[in-house]
Amino acid sequence: MENVEITRNKIHDYCVQLMYSFLILQKSESPIYFQDAVSNVVGLPYEECDVYLKEVLIKCLKNEDKIIDYVSKFLNNWTFDRLNETIQAILIVAVCEYYLQSEPIDKAIIINTSVKLSKRYGDGGQKDYKFVNAVLQNCLDDGRKNLLLD
Predict the structure, then answer these.
(1) 2 lies in some domain
(2) For residues 57 and 35, is the Cβ–Cβ distance under 8 A?
(3) Average pLDDT of the residues of the chain
(4) Residue 133: other Cβ atoms inside 10 A
């Protein structure tokens, strides 16, 4: 079977939805059934899901603590755990995707996509997307030197 092509915007959307669910499961100390979760959200058998989607999610989970520590440096007067899980998921996915790529992705593209997602899924109105924009403006390094992911 071959991977089914989905748009990059839809991949971002799926990644945030899944990372959100993983964060909720972690907080409740429930197990994460990665393949089942991906398959259920995408609506395809796991083997047919986009490889890039799976790669980003695996990197997010594998490097979650490192990403949270890194992003926390840019949260003026906030701690990461005080953010709602939706914003946490958006930030984790954005930072992971930005630093994951061997071929540079423009910082503005990552920020724009994250802002759109925070407008769609955030519960804080304008505060959420402005917050996401500000944090990502500061933590995404154009030289890509700040964060090394496993």
Answers:
(1) no
(2) no
(3) 88
(4) 15
Kindly report the CATH number assigned to the domain that includes residue 72: 1.10.940.10
Closest CA to 53 of 109, 99, 93: 93
* 108, amino acid identity: A
Residue 81, Cβ neighbours under 10 Å: how many? Answer: 10
What single letter denotes the amino acid at residue 89? Answer: A
How many domains does the structure of the chain reveal? 1
Q: Tell me which residue range forms the domain holding 102.
A: 8-139
Q: Return the HEC string of the chain.
A: CCCCCCCHHHHHHHHHHHHHHHHHHHHCCCCCCHHHHHHHHHCCCHHHCCHHHHHHHHHHHHCHHHHHHHHHCCCCCCCHHHCCHHHHHHHHHHHHHHHHCCCCCCHHHHHHHHHHHHHHHCCCCHHHHHHHHHHHHHHCCCCCCCCCCC
Threshold 0.85, pTM exceeds: yes
pLDDT tens-digit readout, 117-131: 999 988 766 688 999
